[in-house]
Write a structure and sequence with these properties.
heterodimer, A: 254 residues, alpha/beta, TIM Barrel, 37% helix, B: 209 residues, Rossmann fold, four-stranded mixed beta sheet
Chain lengths: 254, 209
């Protein structure tokens, strides 16, 4: 049986890994290549790289870093951030990315998903969404979670899957950085409407949060987190061990 | 020297890098002479079967690969490259493969319950069939490898060396003589994947199918 995936996320800006709390107060951590190597050796099932650079110089640097990572790390890599055209897909796939995640680019131009899925296959196109409750309704936020688009989240996710998105990263702004567990309520609603893999993001603070996630929502395929892995608050090997003990299928390090 | 066949399907960056990482001499090529000069050959591939088979034929690499196999050169197909080794694929119609191995390629969804997601994507554990194959000399049964596919080989009992479980028995690796294939991506399967590539680099060719 396929294992539940544990995915560290590396936000990269100007060649460095950063992580913010509630998307603000960014602070610098470490070298993306070294962190990717570390995670690969310590049981991560996949890595997500988000390019949060705005400048074209930064974009070039990010692409170089991605190539360097893919030369050294042999687990699946998903790349997101600044993906607005099929040329952006081409750019990161050429550096060894396996999947490409779209967020604001798809909000601006939803047909980007159709086009990319046709060219590279559904499995290559990941929809990433930042969702927040506004007056009791799940809304899609753009620009790194700063701008309310007013779009209803579940409907948007469904539309993107119909267009060809092969996987969904669902990040809850409400629980992100709070470390009190994943947004199970919202994830449940997403799982109810899609048949592609769902990756839960936002809110993990300890091992038990992942156990609760996989036990209460069997349709969730993966848990994604950043700072708790970066700061060593949760060690992936320990997490895998606990998953195994609790009967959750997991890939344990060799 | 290992030749990775470049016939315009999918990105070969990671595959090339993975061989480089285990210290193997590797070349990415579609040149007939370079392929003839290589000690062993990798047939990669992602995407649609029909398109890939056509590209291989248009470059006349289908004939070349069969010749090289006949000479006893080890060949390993990866993912769609593995599927191409079989007689036929039923991916959107019916298409001829290289016919180097007995069997055909069929949709996974026809064989599993509807609540299982397709593509079969993620890490799954290998179950060995028959005597442990030399490709697996550095790994253990139960080790996980990374899959991304919606079609799988069936009717290949005479070459099946590993499978995984996903609502049905899914063909994971095949070998007959020096013709081998992995449905999973060894270049994305961490140390286990690299260990399989290393074993491939050490395999002797020369015996017939």
């Amino acid at each position: 049986m396929i294992t539940k995936r544990i995915i560290p996320c590396l936000d990269v800006r100007d060649g460095q890994v950063v992580k913010g709390v509630n998307f603000e107060g960014l602070r610098t951590l470490s070298s993306p290549v070294e962190m990717a190597k570390y995670y690969s050796a310590n049981g991560a099932d996949e890595l997500v790289f988000y390019d949060i650079t705005a400048s074209s110089d930064g974009r070039k640097l990010f692409t170089d870093i991605l190539c360097e990572t893919a030369k050294n790390v042999f687990i699946p890599l998903t790349v997101g951030g600044g993906i607005n055209t099929v040329q952006d897909f081409e750019r990161v796939l050429g550096c060894g990315a396996d999947k490409v995640s779209v967020n604001s680019g798809a909000i601006r131009n939803p047909s980007l998903i159709d086009e990319a899925a046709r060219l590279y296959g559904d499995q290559c196109v990941v929809l990433s969404v930042d969702v927040k409750r506004v007056d009791g309704v799940f809304r899609i936020f753009a620009k790194g979670g700063r701008e309310n688009t007013g779009m209803e989240a579940i409907q948007w996710i469904k539309e993107c899957v119909d267009r060809g998105a092969g996987e969904i990263v669902v990040n809850s702004i409400d629980t992100d950085g709070v470390k009190l567990g994943f947004d199970l309520d919202m994830l449940q609603k997403v799982c109810d409407v899609v048949s592609v893999p769902v990756i839960a993001s936002g809110g993990a603070g300890k091992i038990e949060d992942f156990i609760t996630l996989f036990q209460s929502l069997p349709k969730v395929d993966a848990g994604l987190a950043a700072s708790i892995f970066h700061f060593g608050e949760v060690k992936i090997a320990d997490l895998k061990e606990e998953m195994h003990k609790m009967g959750i299928p997991s890939r344990r390090s060799v | 020297m290992i030749a990775i066949i470049d016939y315009g399907v999918g990105n070969l960056f990671s595959l090339k890098s993975s061989f480089a990482a285990i210290g193997a001499d590797v070349i990415v090529t579609r040149d007939a002479q370079e392929i003839r000069n290589a000690d062993r050959v990798i047939l990669p591939g992602v995407g649609a079967f029909e398109d890939a088979a056509k590209k291989l034929r248009d470059l006349q690499l289908d004939v070349l690969l069969k010749e090289e196999v006949k000479k006893g050169k080890p060949l390993m197909g990866i993912c769609l490259g593995m599927q191409m080794l079989f007689e036929k694929s039923y991916e959107y119609g019916e298409h001829q493969g290289l016919g180097l191995l007995k069997g055909s390629v069929c949709p996974i969804k026809d064989r599993i319950s509807a609540d299982l997601k397709v593509p079969h994507m993620g890490w799954n554990a290998l179950q060995f069939h028959g005597e442990k194959h030399p490709l697996f000399r550095y790994i253990n049964e139960g080790d996980c490898v990374y899959f991304v596919h919606s079609y799988a080989a069936i009717g290949c009992e005479n070459s099946l060396i590993a499978s995984c479980e996903y609502g049905a028995q899914i063909t994971a690796a095949v070998a007959r003589g020096h013709v081998m294939g992995c449905q999973f991506h060894p270049e994305k399967s961490g140390d286990v994947g690299l260990a399989i590539l290393r074993a491939f680099c050490e395999m002797e060719g020369g015996y017939t199918c």
